[in-house]
Predict the structure.
Amino acid sequence: MASETSFDALRQIQMAERHAPALVKLEDDFYPRYLAWLAELESHVKRQFSLEGAQTLENSRRALSDLFELRKQKLFFKALKDFRKGAVSSTGLSGQEKELYTGLITLLSQYQLALNPSPPASENDVPVELLSDVPAFVGFDAQTYGPFKAGQTIRLPKKQADFLARKGILKVME
């Protein structure tokens, strides 16, 4: 949304978030920017008290807290839905929300692996060498793979291996 930092802009984002079924897109620096703005507003109210300034400060705190709670709930549901679909995307999330989202996806992957270990290798699996670290991911076969470290040699279904090789993530060893 807009990069303006004000109570009106915050309220506009809060209302959009309340009425939208999905997460409203935020800039990467949204929370640090608004927290700094609140600290500045609080400092101004302490130096030059006014009832209007104090009300703006309190209303801004409430709006930001409400927005945070709304987004936190939607973020948990988004992570669960994306994990189930195998379509992980943190587009439109603030920097802090991206960290939470990635952590939730990792936790869901670990949980699934603990309850449903990887199936035995099939004749369609090929040996591959990873060229970079790879977080846990859901493959084309709806199985969870990873996390893996660069240099590690593993076996993956051929279709998955070919796809990741084209992306430069691994090298197929045959």
